[in-house]
Amino acid sequence: MPKIGDIQLPDFPLLLAPMEDVSDPPFRALCKENGADVVYTEFISSEGLIRDAAKSTMKLDIYEAERPVGIQIFGANLDSMLQSVEIVERTKPDIIDINFGCPVKKVVSRGAGAGILKDIDLMVSLTAAMVKHTDLPITVKTRLGWDDDSIKIVEVAERLQDVGIKAISIHGRTRAQMYKGNADWKPIAAVKNNPRMHIPVFGNGDVNTPERALEMRDDYGLDGAMIGRASIGYPWFFREVKHFFETGEHMAKPTMQERVEVARRHLEMSIAWKGETLGVFETRRHYTNYFKGIPNFKEYRMKMVTSDDSKGVFDTFNEVLDKFGNHRFDYR
């Protein structure tokens, strides 16, 4: 069974990917309850932490029930990254993860995220310095390469391991691909099959059904799956994957009452954590998936995503239960 440093994980763990404006404490709590083995925070700017920017420091909030939890930081300036490690240590996470994979232009243009894939030597030296600067296990999330002509992930992963990282998660796309096309897991398997590799190698990208997770485990031989978009507004995904692993059968989809109850709790926790206005606004992105594929639902979804206060959303939840009862829909 894989370990991250001294953290023992189950066989083929499921990890919640760090996702901007998604992987906040309320959402992480729901995913944890539903079977996520390791959760990661939203990615946090090292420069923002040093400036004590409110949005960056708020992302450091972690709770005991989440453990093991990793805080993910990004940046390309050595001094800033080392200072941010010291700030992150004060919140006592279990893991510090370095983002070398974010493809967004505003991050890449600063040489951070996937931007550092253009300078592998810098990527390795920065990682080595961070490993030496903390006793917490350092992990890395990255992509296959900058583009199809620069995929050297087997070499890159080995070099990162050699300077002390404790696990690596690899998204099966290049930066040039962004999120288009299909994730290619073959290069990730090549990393795992490198006889010199001894740290866990987790796969990421297009793990959107239990069958795909099983394929990643059995056909590609990876140590675990990092799950992102499939879990947005659908924390049950982790439970469904584990059920499929154990039984070979699909779990029944959540009933309408279960969907409403989790959406309600999500909103309540978001308001408690970030206040009424932000809590209402930032939970909207999840409603489409909480109620995805349900017929004749557009009217209610529109109310949920346009209500400016929580009362409007809670009232809509009650309307939904009155309309649909506790029907179980065989939809994602």
TrEMBL record:
Alphabetized Pfam families for the sequence: Dus
Reactions catalysed: a 5,6-dihydrouridine in tRNA + NADP(+) = a uridine in tRNA + NADPH + H(+); a 5,6-dihydrouridine in tRNA + NAD(+) = a uridine in tRNA + NADH + H(+)
Family designation: Belongs to the dus family.
Protein name: tRNA-dihydrouridine synthase
Active site positions, chain numbering: C102
Ribosomal protein recorded as keyword: no
Signal sequence, start to end: none
Originating species: Nonlabens ulvanivorans
Enzyme class: oxidoreductase
InterPro entries named in the record: Aldolase_TIM, DUS-like_FMN-bd, DUS_fam, DusB-like, tRNA-dHydroUridine_Synthase_C, tRNA_hU_synthase_CS
Keywords, comma-separated and alphabetical: Flavoprotein, FMN, NADP, Nucleotide-binding, Oxidoreductase, RNA-binding, tRNA processing, tRNA-binding
Gene3D superfamilies named in the record: Aldolase class I, Putative flavin oxidoreducatase, domain 2
